[in-house]
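Quick one, tokens below:
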């Protein structure tokens, strides 16, 4: 099961949509920063920007890592807790290309469609 977390900057809310494996297959090969049509998430008229995600094993996607798999990278603490200046640590990240091992996609709405998201979510839950 793949989950898409869609952020709405107008209202400040996020919406969660489940994606089938067929849709994930059609999204494979896309990169972080690309604009995706909302038709993949049953939201016609919407356009969304891919901002990140995570793999099945929990590793986060990194925007500047141009591979489809995982890689261990030496990272340093630029900001954060006191006493960590100069400390570097090897951390595993997933590349910025969508593949079949993705479990979550993070998206931000860039263009809105005709139907508001509030109405669509109420219909999915069966509320009136």
């Amino acid at each position: 099961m793949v989950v898409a977390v869609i952020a709405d900057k107008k209202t400040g809310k996020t919406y969660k949509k489940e994606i089938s494996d067929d849709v994930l297959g059609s999204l494979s090969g896309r990169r972080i920063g690309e604009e995706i049509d909302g038709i993949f998430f049953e939201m016609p008229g919407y356009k969304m920007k891919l901002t990140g995600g995570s793999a099945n094993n929990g590793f986060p996607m990194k925007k500047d890592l141009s591979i489809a798999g995982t890689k261990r990278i030496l990272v340093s603490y630029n900001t954060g807790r006191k006493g960590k200046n100069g400390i570097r640590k090897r951390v595993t990240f997933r590349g910025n290309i969508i593949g079949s091992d993705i479990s979550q996609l993070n998206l931000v709405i860039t263009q809105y469609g005709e139907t508001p998201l509030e109405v669509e979510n109420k219909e999915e839950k069966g509320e009136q």
